[in-house]
Amino acid sequence: MIFLIFSFEIEGIHSIEYFSHLNEADFSFYPHKIVPLKERKGLYYEYYGYCPYWIDTTTYKNFRFHLLTHISYFSVGIDTLGNLGSIPNSYRFSYLYSLAHSRGVKMHITYTIFGSSNVSKFLNNKNARNNAISQISSMVTNYGLDGVNIDFEFVQSSVKDSFSKFINDLYYEMLNHQQGRKELYIAMPAVPPWYPGYDYAYLSSHSDGLFIMAYDYHYSGSSVAGPVSPTIPSSLWGQWATASTIKSYLTYGATRDKLILGIPYYGFDWPTTSSSIGSSTRGTGDAVVFRYAVQNAQSYGRLWDTYSLTPWYEYYVNGDGWHQCWYDDSFSLYLKFTQARDSSLKGSGCWALGYDDGYDDIWNAIQSVFWIEPPSKHFVLSVNISDLNTREGPGTDWKILTVSKLNQKFVGFKYLNNWYKIYFPSDSGAYYAYMWGGDGIDYQYLKGSTGDTIVRVTASLLNVREGPGTSNNIITRISFGQVFVLDSIYNGWARIYIPPVDTHRTGWCSLTYLKMVQSPEDSNEYDATILKTEYPDTLFSLDTFTLKIKVLNNGSGPFDNNTFLYSFNSPFYDSLSWTDRNKVITTGYDGLPNQTFYRYGKMRAPFVSDTTIVQDTFRFYRKNIFGGNIILKVVVLPEQTIVDDNSMIHSFNVQSIFKNSVKFTGCVKGDFEIKIYDVSGRLVFMKKGKDRIDFEFGDRQSSGIYFYEVKTEKDIIKGKVIKLH
User: Fold this and answer.
1) CATH class in words for 649-723
2) 246 Cβ contact partners less than 8 Å away, ≥ 6 residues apart
3) What is the DSSP letter of 166?
4) For residue 363, which phi and psi values (nearest 5 degrees)?
5) 114 to each of 23, 159, 299, 598, how far by Cα in Å?
6) Domain 525-637 carries which CATH code?
7) C-beta of residue 654 within 8 angstroms of C-beta of residue 665
8) Could you tell me if residue 407 is left (phi over 0), alpha (psi between -120 and 50 degrees) or otherwise beta?
9) Cβ pair 69, 48 in contact under 8 A
């Protein structure tokens, strides 16, 4: 095993590259135009990319913005008194800002302090902390930022509480910002036990995201050349790798929904004593960005390390000696992306955007892991109350963007505690929007909708107009990958539902730039947890009853009237309400994924001549059989016809089920009257007589259920008969 000797004073890649490019930076002031944040797409997870000030604007055109949720421009320095520096190459920041916002990507700025002594001096000074918070808040206002990123490298244990206090105060400043809630992300070290200056649980609960810098496990000054970001622990490289880092963060109290797994778009090239794995270094390693590492590996020969699941290459320089470069390529990064996804983290991210310029490999890996292509995991929801707030984030502390109206339909693709994430039009100034759907029982603000057609935007930006044609005014714009519900089509134009923009609840788009998908629910798996069932425990022959089911929707589609209860050849078959002998139509609340609600199925007890226990097991069925077993077990009694031994009616007989007509017979002491009603309560037959009952019924009636009532001076007999098709 190779043990890493770790110094807590090592200089990380962020610091190394920040200072190495500093002489290139332009700190002149450039006018900055605030552009409202636009909205697009449906990344199911976040992807958070640092973009350093030295990345040229020519590389921005190769960013796939639909695969990014956040960009943090790197960086603005904070001195030990809490004063902020200028934005380096601010013209680049402004250009990137406009590109990002028009495509729905949130824009942050990273605020840095490098060197633990500088970090400690700053954190030990309350006035400096407050000064920095005030200046950061002002910069957020002046530049229209969506949030901030704090990167202090690194925090020592002696100032642990002061750092937590600083983050606490900054977090609440961002929560209550004058422009509305802003985000706070924190750059965090790769290995928690090595950095006791961070209260991992506290920082997790007092931020919007922890960006784990899951790199520099081997750093520029390592004594042994090895993987910069090992994927799994191994006997060769030791216990620390991205997999064990994730586990450690959870052990230290951070929550999955706050963790961003940051991965490297670079490697280190070390001079080494040999070409063998585990070779000692002869000096400091130089950073090699992704595009050059890939090119070099093609020249020297890409090698694969099965211990760390990362690539490397080696080469010999005449007059110098052996070199080894350890890096990450698209395959090793793909493995790390799947770690983030399969660990249910908030997402992943990178250091740094632009390092892969000219290559699509990493973007393709991101798309294959994090992109959810409609209709997968997409569902249509419908507003179920007159007015429903539509907010920037999943909680009442987020700004209200607009108020949606009854029966408006939107496409959802993610939820958090019954807050549903929907697509929101671009020029309305939001990234995406959230609506609270209610729990499904006490509060039913959103319900499912099925059978709709949804449309996905295929253009980079698409105008939404007041009418079907380019002569109509533009209401807003929507972006690549966004999905909306189609209302109607006219002459090559599609009218879509949009959250209210001014007075507009719908808008028109060219069909040329839309991909249509019908009934998205049919492309998704259904699942449910059965929480409770209610039904009578005792019934008479042929009695109808209702099965009431309390259910939690665990699937990716809403319930509807095509959600059946299924049991093969069930004894509780009811010909009037079942589709066939196996499937029961259910009614009730059309609950969304993650809602709890009630569904109802109509049943009929079988005909029995003696008291019988009847049992059957049902499961839900839509496109697939799903959910747990629903077990019915009831006692069925034979139908009662004689009231008691002193009854005036004797030998009364009628067949309960018939096809053409049915004969009523019996003996009566005195006068009697018979009335027969259909299921609506309408009287369809009446007969009076004396002493003897003898008549036929049904030849003029349609199929269905009929209820009869036989009255004498002292007795009443009630029952029902069924005419079949």
Assistant:
1) mainly beta
2) 212, 259, 261, 339, 340, 343, 345
3) H
4) -60, -40
5) 17, 15, 36, 57
6) 2.60.40.10
7) yes
8) left
9) yes
- Between CA 511 and CA 493 the distance in angstroms is 5
pLDDT range class, residue 19, cuts 50, 70, 90: confident
Round to whole Å and give the CA distance between 167 and 175. 12
Q: How far lies 287's CA from each of 6, 40, 269, 284, 327, in Å?
A: 19, 35, 6, 10, 9
Q: What separation, in Å, do the N-terminal and C-terminal C-alpha atoms of the chain show? A: 80
Token pair of 403, please? Answer: 């108020």
* Local structure of 345: helix, strand or coil: coil
3-state SS class at 159: helix
∠ at Cα 335 (334, 338), nearest 5°? 85
Identify the CATH homologous superfamily for domain 13-263+328-369. Answer: Glycosidases (3.20.20.80)
Within this chain, domains 13-263+328-369 and 379-522 share the same CATH topology: no
Residue 162 has pLDDT above 70, yes or no: yes
Structure tokens at 519: 């009934």
- Does 10 or 205 have the greater pLDDT score? 205
Confidence of residue 639 (pLDDT cuts 50, 70, 90): low
Residue spans of the domains in the chain: they are 13-263+328-369, 379-522, 525-637, 649-723
Question: Which one, of 157, 242, 156, 164, lies nearest residue 201 by Cα?
Answer: 164
Q: DSSP letter for 346, please.
A: S
Evaluate if residue 7 carries a pLDDT over 50. Answer: no
Output the six-digit token pair for 300: 């020297």
- Burial of residue 283, with CB atoms counted within 10 A of its CB: 0-12 exposed, 13-18 middle, 19 or more buried: exposed
Greatest Cα-to-Cα distance within the chain, rounded to the nearest angstrom: 127
Query: Per DSSP, what are the bridge partners of residue 394?
Result: none
Please name the residue that has the structure tokens 């916002």.
101
Rounded to two decimals, what is the model's pTM?
0.72
Pairwise CA distance, residues 20 & 486, whole Å: 53
75: left (phi > 0), else alpha (psi -120 to 50), else beta?
beta
Using the predicted structure, report yes or no on whether residue 6 has a pLDDT greater than 50: no
Count Cα atoms within 13 angstroms, Cβ side, for 257.
Answer: 7
How far apart are alpha carbons 104 and 320 in whole angstroms? Answer: 49
Looking at residue 65, what DSSP letter applies? G
Exposure string for 261-270, b = 16+ CB within 10 A, e = fewer: bbbbbbbbbb
* Whole-angstrom distance, CA of residue 57 vs CA of residue 479: 22
Residues in contact with 377: Cβ distance below 8 Å, sequence separation at least 6, in sequence order: 44, 413, 414, 524, 556
The pLDDT confidence band at residue 643, using thresholds 50, 70 and 90, is very low
Collapsing DSSP states into helix, strand and coil, what is residue 136? helix
* Each residue's pLDDT tens digit, 370-428: 987 788 889 999 999 999 999 988 899 888 889 999 999 999 988 888 999 998 875 55
Q: Is 451 left (phi over 0), alpha (psi -120 to 50) or beta?
A: left
Distances, alpha carbon 247 to alpha carbons 198, 227, 256, 300, 351, in Å: 16, 19, 10, 36, 21
Q: May I ask the CATH class of domain 379-522?
A: mainly beta
Q: Give how far Cα 139 sits from Cα of 126, 133, 134, Å.
A: 20, 10, 9
